[in-house]
Specification:
Elements (H helix, E strand, L loop, with lengths): L1 H24 L6 E3 L13 E7 L4 H16 L4 E7 L8 H13 L3 H13 L21 H12 L3 H8 L2 H16 L7 E4 L3 E3 L5 H17 L1
Parallel strand pairs: 2-3
Antiparallel strand pairs: 1-5, 2-4, 4-5
């Protein structure tokens, strides 16, 4: 029993030292912002929310997806990633992509179509917002009907069912709530990560730093 207690003490001391080193590395105001007031979260009790504010029309968000995939596999079991689409850039079709995402979420297909929609915008060009040859924005931009056909190809949901949900009052309400939440979190740009409605990441340049910082903030939120 005494041997077990001694071993447990060593483990706890090691974890405390690790947390202390992490706290020395990451500085509030430089690496992350403490949100006041904290925002409500959508994950179950006992979980820590790791939110990415994004848009399918955002080139930086597309480039950031490998980091998000690495982050998803490196978070502790009590952390859960959620996605919140932004709409402020109408020139790159963000309001349409926001509506399309919330529609897919309501239909239960958002997670399995997420990468496919990024690919449709930035790889195949099926929903491209700009001409890759000239880098100029397309006119007209992809329509909601175009998105419905793309989701049908990826998920099998019929375009008419997708559009009926997309044009519903429930989706309008989700979009208004998302816009309000993004303003409350003072999101300066995308991609942006917010941990548990309390800590907004000031994204470092290094991919591993992003992952380490988010893990530190998850640990900080868990301790509270």
């Amino acid at each position: 029993m005494e041997r077990f207690a001694a071993a447990l003490f060593v483990v706890l001391a090691f974890l405390a030292a690790q947390n202390a080193r992490a706290a020395d590395r990451w500085v509030e105001g430089r690496d992350y912002v403490l949100l006041s007031p904290p925002q409500s979260i959508s994950v179950p009790t006992g979980k820590i929310e790791v939110m990415e504010v994004f848009s399918y029309g955002c080139p930086g968000c597309n480039t950031f997806q490998p980091v998000m995939n690495r982050l998803r596999h490196s978070l502790p079991a009590n952390a859960q990633i959620v996605l919140l689409p932004a709409s402020w850039n109408s020139g790159e079709d963000w309001p349409m992509f926001q509506r399309a995402f919330f529609t897919a979420q309501s239909l239960g297909i958002a997670e399995r179509t997420h990468q496919g929609i990024f690919d449709a915008v930035w790889k195949t060009g099926e929903l491209a917002v700009s001409d890759p040859a000239t880098n100029r924005l397309k006119h007209p931009q992809p329509s909601l009907e175009d998105a419905a056909r793309c989701y049908a190809r990826i998920s099998g949901v019929k375009p008419e069912a997708f559009l009926a949900t997309a044009n519903s009052f429930a989706i309008d309400m989700k979009m208004r709530a998302a816009d309000k939440q993004i303003v409350a979190m003072q999101v300066p740009g995308t991609p942006c990560i917010v941990v548990n409605g309390k800590y907004r990441v000031i994204t470092p340049g290094n991919e591993q730093d992003v992952i380490d910082l988010v893990r530190f903030l998850v640990s900080k939120a868990s301790a509270r």
